[in-house]
Write a structure and sequence with these properties.
The chain is about 30% helix and about 40% strand. It is built from 1 helix and 9 strands; from the N terminus they run H-E-E-E-E-E-E-E-E-E. The strands form 2 sheets. Strands 1, 2, 4, 7 and 9 form a 5-stranded antiparallel β-sheet that branches. The protein has a 4-stranded antiparallel β-sheet with strand order 3-8-5-6, with no helix packed on it. Strand 5 (about 115-125) and strand 6 form a beta hairpin.
Length: about 190
């Protein structure tokens, strides 16, 4: 055997050995990919099982709402000459026929006495209807009421105004502040 034969023989042995390593590493990679995929599917399925097992009797709550006023509004009342203070939203002839409830959050500031808030809708035909919310608290409280409680509104397809009103005869003190926030209509 000469040197050339020896080199060719060694090269053949080396190349055969390296190709077997590549085949083994590809087989290992394929095995680990399958194992990872099966593990991921198992974890997902177990999570879904736990979700439905513990939430069986609890319906999912979702609310589709139209947000009318995203920022807090301040009603600063001082009943010396005035008889009422209000904040009004221009609804621009908005069609509210598909909505069922009105929701908002409210709180009073530094007021010891009871304060009631009148919420009033007006439509394009000048029909007015109001609902009173009594004893607004010092901490934020969420209020919701059915639109059906606004009895004097016959047509909800062209609404012009939504007003929040503080009247002199519905407060114990002549001065105070009420904040209104998160005014929304829900289906």
């Amino acid at each position: 055997m000469d040197k050339k034969d020896i080199y060719e023989h060694l090269a053949k042995i080396y190349l055969d050995a390296s190709s077997k390593k590549k085949k083994k590493s590809k087989a290992h990679q394929s095995f680990f990919r399958k194992l990872f995929f099966i593990s991921g599917v198992s974890v997902f399925a177990f999570g879904v099982f736990l979700f439905f097992a513990f939430n069986r009797n609890k319906p999912l709550k979702s609310e589709i709402a139209l947000l009318l006023q995203p920022d807090a509004v301040k009603i600063n009342f001082h009943f010396d000459p005035a008889k009422k203070e209000s904040y009004s939203l221009d609804l621009n002839k908005l069609d509210l026929t598909r909505f069922k409830t009105l929701g908002f959050s409210a709180k009073k500031v530094n007021s010891i006495g009871m304060i009631s808030l009148r919420v009033e809708f007006i439509n394009d035909f000048n029909e007015k209807s109001e609902v009173y919310f009594r004893d607004i608290p010092l901490k934020w409280q969420d209020y919701q009421t059915e639109l059906s409680k606004f009895k004097n509104i016959g047509d909800w397809s062209s609404m012009t105004h939504l007003s929040f009103i503080v009247e002199e005869w519905n407060v114990k003190e002549k001065k105070g502040i009420i904040y209104i926030d998160n005014v929304r209509l829900a289906k």
